[in-house]
Structure formats: C-alpha cells, structure tokens
Design a protein that fits this description.
Order of helices and strands: HHHHHHHHHHHHHHHHH
CATH topology of the largest domain: Growth Hormone, Chain: A
CATH superfamily of the largest domain: MFS general substrate transporter like domains
Distance between the termini: 52 Å
Number of helices: 17
Length: 355
C-alpha cells in the first residue's frame, strides 16, 4: 500500500512543482510533511495510523528529496555526473549510519519508536538548513524570450512528459536505472536469505555480509567522486559493468565463506556507480526539464517495484538460486545499452564545432 498509493501520489510532484520559487515552496512543504510522517510513525498506536504515515512518506520524500536533487542538477548542468556522485555518497553514508544509529538507540534503552524520533530530529535540522540557505544559484541559461522555464504552466510540462516518453534517449536511461537496480537494491534485499538458505551460512555471517556490502558500496561511491575528475562517466559505467559481469557469477559459484565475502565486497564497490551515473544521464537527456525527470523517475520507480515481486515469484517456482542466477543479464544490459550514447566531452566538442 505505501508503495502503490504513496508512489501514485508522488507522480505529479515534478510537473506541479515546476521550477523556481514554486519548486522551493514544494521542497519546504515536503520537508515539513517528511518530519511529520516520521513523528507519525513514532507515535502510531494503531495499524491505520502507521499505514497512513508510511503512505504519506512517499510524496513527502519526493517533494523534499527528489525535488532537491533536481534543483542541484539544474545548478550544475555541466557537472551532473560528479555532483550526482556526491549526492549518492551522502546516501550511502546514511545507509551505513542507519544501523549504527539504531544500535546506539537500542544500547541506550530505546526502541524503534525512539529511532524514528531521532530521525525526525535530524530531518528537522536538515529542513532548517534548507530554509536558511535559500534557493540554489542555477547556472542554467533560461529562455530570454517568451515564458521562462519556471513560468511554464503545468499543462505544458505535462505535455513535455508525454514527449519525453517518445524519446529513446530518455527512455534508455529511465529503463536502465530500473534494470540496474535489480543487482543493487533488489539483490541486497534477497542477499541474507540467499546466504542462509542457499549457501547454508549462519545468520550471523549473513548479517556481516550485509554490513560488508553497505561498507563496500560506500567505498565505491567515495572512489567514484575521485575517478570522475579523471575519467568520462560512460567509460566508468562500462568498466564497472564489465567487472560486475565477472564478479557476480563468481559470487554465486565461489565456495567458502571468506572468498564469497571478498567477491561480494568487490561486486558492491563496482556496482555503486550505476545509480548516480545513470540518473545523471537521465537529467542530461532532459536539459532544463528536471521537473519532467522527477515525474518520470517516480513513475519508473513505481513500476520498478515489481522487480522484487518478479524475483520472489521465480524463487518460489524454481528456487532462489535460479532466481538470482537470472540476474547475470543485468551487467550485460548496463554494458551494452549505453553503447550508442556519446560522452559529455564528445557532445560538447560537437556543439562547439556547430557553433
């Protein structure tokens, strides 16, 4: 219900928010609801209240987080991949800090409700920082005649969404983000179950494997920030896909606890660049239309929620081992689908030549 109903409510946010002052108000309003949903979860005394809070969390997160991401992409149109890498690094740091935070809360005698209260406090501080900082300074060149990008009415932006769905350059990155996620978040969701039920490792080892995966992904995101200062984003994407194409089958086949965990760490590090690089390419395919990218990402994420269900159904019918074996096609897709795309520098050189 949170995924379907909340995701559906999130769909029109990008189109309705648009740009400029209206988007900033949407971000701040979403941040307030974001904090309130965390407080609602912490104080829920019935299933209905808890369900409503989780449903509201989706559009609140879309307004507070996704629109902020779009604002940052607009502010750095020529460095979207490096900036997106920094964004993803912050997310990975949060993924690692989350279990540590819960451990600290439990060690202090609190429970899951106290954990959500602490998160609400952190979110309130972030909201205050966003409010005090003011809007980002955008370097995007706005149209000088007619209506500016931030002044376009929402029906115009809705038609831009329909037009983007007919553009293969945009659809390529949109679909690839969801396909790549099968070997990132979806694989993480099934990892502990695979290690216990298929690899016959202990639950303690499975828990350690999750920690290793999160830590290695954080290291991969940190390395990506440095690498993108020296290499093209598509070069990094293809190299990581080629490495994952070798490491993922090795993870499934290698015997022994230590070798399997070592391969898992390497796999987690090389797949870490996929989301930031692909998401940056999606924004790059929609110049000055980041609100369209937000709406399309929400729609794709809603459809991508079927990924875990599909893996689960295959696992139920044929076994989890076969279900995860099918994911070997994911690195191939990441490696081959962007083959026709030009690098950012090549595109810039072509534009300069036209000028």
């Amino acid at each position: 219900m949170p995924l379907l109903v909340g995701g559906f409510l999130e769909l029109p946010l990008g189109v309705l928010a648009g740009h400029g002052r209206r988007r900033r108000l949407a971000v701040l309003a979403g941040g307030i609801v974001f904090v309130l949903t965390l407080l609602g979860v912490a104080s829920a005394r019935s299933f209905t209240v808890l369900l409503c809070a989780f449903i509201a969390f989706y559009p609140a997160s879309g307004a507070f987080v996704s629109l902020t991401q779009a604002e940052i992409m607009d502010a750095w149109p020529d460095r979207q991949a490096p900036v997106m890498a920094r964004w993803d690094l912050a997310g990975s740091a949060g993924a690692v800090a989350g279990p540590l935070l819960l451990t600290a809360v439990l060690a202090a005698g609190g429970g899951w409700r106290a954990g959500y209260l602490v998160l609400a406090g952190f979110a309130a501080v972030v909201w205050l920082g966003a409010y005090l900082r003011g809007p980002a300074d955008s370097t995007v060149s706005r149209p000088t005649t007619g209506e500016g990008a931030e002044d376009r009415p929402w029906p115009v932006r809705a038609r831009e969404v329909a037009a983007a769905l007919r553009d293969w350059e945009t659809l390529r990155w949109l679909l690839l983000i969801e396909v790549a996620d099968l070997l990132v978040d979806v694989f993480t969701g099934f990892l502990a179950l695979y290690l216990v039920d298929v690899a016959h490792l202990s639950p303690a080892v499975a828990a350690m494997a999750i920690a290793i995966r999160l830590g290695a992904a954080l290291a991969g995101d940190a390395a990506l920030v440095v690498i993108l200062e020296r290499a093209e984003d598509l070069t990094v994407l293809r190299a990581s896909a080629a490495a994952a194409g070798l490491l993922y089958p090795a993870f499934l086949l290698v015997p022994g606890v230590v070798p399997k965990l070592i391969v898992l760490a390497a796999l987690s590090a090389v797949t870490a660049p996929w989301y930031p690089l692909l998401q940056a390419r999606l924004y790059g395919s929609l110049p000055e239309r980041s609100s369209v990218a937000v709406t399309l990402s929400s729609a794709a994420g809603l459809a991508g929620g079927l990924g875990p269900l599909a893996v689960g159904l295959v696992a139920q019918g044929f076994g989890l081992s076969w279900a995860l074996t099918g994911l070997v096609v994911v690195p191939v897709a990441v490696l081959l689908v962007p083959a026709g795309a030009r690098s950012r520098r090549a595109a810039d050189r072509a534009d300069d030549a036209d000028v």
